[in-house]
Write a structure and sequence with these properties.
With 389 residues, the protein is α/β, with parallel strands linked by helices. The chain is 19% helix and 23% strand. The strands form 6 sheets. It has a 9-stranded mixed β-sheet, covered by helices on one side.
């Protein structure tokens, strides 16, 4: 008797999920090894139209379905990146993320609050004159910073890791909790990311200082490139460029300081500031496109790159953001045109409710996944079990 044994190959797969949150940002990255990253948040408590009908995607429920739980059953995210302190990037932080010593986490009082293992924040996010949501993040960041400042040997602990991205005036912050532009990050909370590299492009020292004088929080946005790797493959299988609300001057500073062209390449680009014209030029000048925008958009890889606009529906009107003229410029620069320009408000709907834009990354590169799930319940599959696990 001949017994045939069929073995199936386990496919490594990472996922990027852009939530539909209007003129705001909230993105989830989930690696094949289960590591998770949230970039900004916009989590609303009321999902209805005022008459009891759900019209907004339930981001919180979706996140709870995606994030792992620790040994005590508490949901956690490995890294939370607060790109800059504006409401549309941090609303709902206090209500949905745990602040304080994790030893004090009460599963009844703090039920469903997400523990942040490592928090990234800009220097501007530590200053005054902030909105209430941004102040909530600042309070947690300052609590963590004090742990380092009170103990010169402290290197971080569960729920207490911190990274300030940028400079303290003309010098760096304490190296135990600081990253500056040019840093390639491969670990979070002292644990290897394994299949992801994060390259920090900004904010720069001069932009942090000028932002204090002009109260321009956008200028301090964290700008990063995510490089996704797959076991058995050389190089990156996908690269994503994200920059909060960084405007054209910041992108020019990045170009002026960059020494590695590979760190500017992308096949997924999040349109800065919710598809605002400010990526291309001053809002008052729509006749000229700055060279920085041309150069960045020309860094797209291959013929199938995508640009995502996390924004309200983009209409041919005077709104900015989102800006119709900016959308047209993005489409014009994409090698595949309008089919690869995606708007979170309109790309996919179920029951009239916008659904997340989801990319899957495996050995074949990135693939756009069409959503077929019910509003607020879409799910990224958990990592497939690997040998020995």
């Amino acid at each position: 008797m001949i017994i045939s044994i069929i073995t199936s190959k386990i496919i490594m797969e990472h996922v990027i999920k852009f939530y539909p949150v209007g003129n705001a940002d909230c993105t989830l990255i989930k690696l094949d090894n289960g590591k998770t990253i949230i970039v900004d948040c916009q989590i609303l408590g009321d999902l209805t139209d005022g008459n009891g009908k759900q019209v907004v995607f339930d981001v919180k429920s979706d996140l709870l379905g995606e994030l792992k739980k620790d040994s005590l059953g508490r949901p956690f995210v490995d890294l939370f990146i607060s790109t800059h302190p504006h409401d549309d990037h941090c609303k709902g932080f206090a209500e949905n993320f745990y602040s304080g010593d994790v030893a004090d986490y009460d599963k009844d009082i703090n039920k469903d609050e997400v523990i942040i293992e490592e928090l990234w924040i800009t220097p501007r996010g530590l200053k005054n004159s902030l909105s209430t949501p941004a102040t909530d993040i600042r309070k947690e960041a300052k609590r963590r910073r004090k742990l380092y400042d009170d103990d010169v040997k402290f290197q971080g602990s569960t729920g207490n890791y911190l990274r300030i991205i940028g400079y303290d005036k003309d010098k760096e912050f304490d190296s135990r909790y600081c990253y500056v532009p040019g840093k390639l990050v491969t670990t979070v909370h002292s644990d290897s990311l394994s299949w992801l590299d994060i390259f920090i492009h900004a904010p720069f020292k001069e932009d942090v200082e000028s932002s204090k004088q002009d109260d321009d929080k956008n200028a301090t946005s964290i700008v990063v490139q995510f490089g996704f790797k797959i076991d058995g493959c050389t190089g990156y299988k996908s690269r994503m460029l994200m920059g909060g609300d960084a405007e054209y001057e910041i992108w020019q500073h990045i170009l002026d300081n960059n020494t590695d062209e590979e760190k500017l390449k992308w096949n997924i680009f999040l349109a800065p500031h919710h598809c605002s014209w400010s990526f291309f030029n001053e809002s008052s000048n729509k006749e000229e496109i700055k060279q920085s925008a041309e150069t960045i958009l020309n860094k797209q890889i291959g013929n199938y790159a995508h640009i995502v606009a996390s924004a309200n529906e983009i209409k041919n009107d005077d709104n900015n953001p989102p800006c119709y003229e900016a959308k047209q410029q993005y489409i014009d620069k994409l090698k595949t045109g309008s089919t690869h320009f995606l708007n979170t408000a309109t790309h996919s709907k179920v029951g009239g409710i916008p659904q997340p834009i989801i990319f899957k990354i495996n050995e074949n590169g990135k693939t756009l996944k069409e959503s077929t799930t019910l509003a607020g319940t879409s799910s990224i599959s958990n990592p497939a079990p690997r040998a020995g696990q």
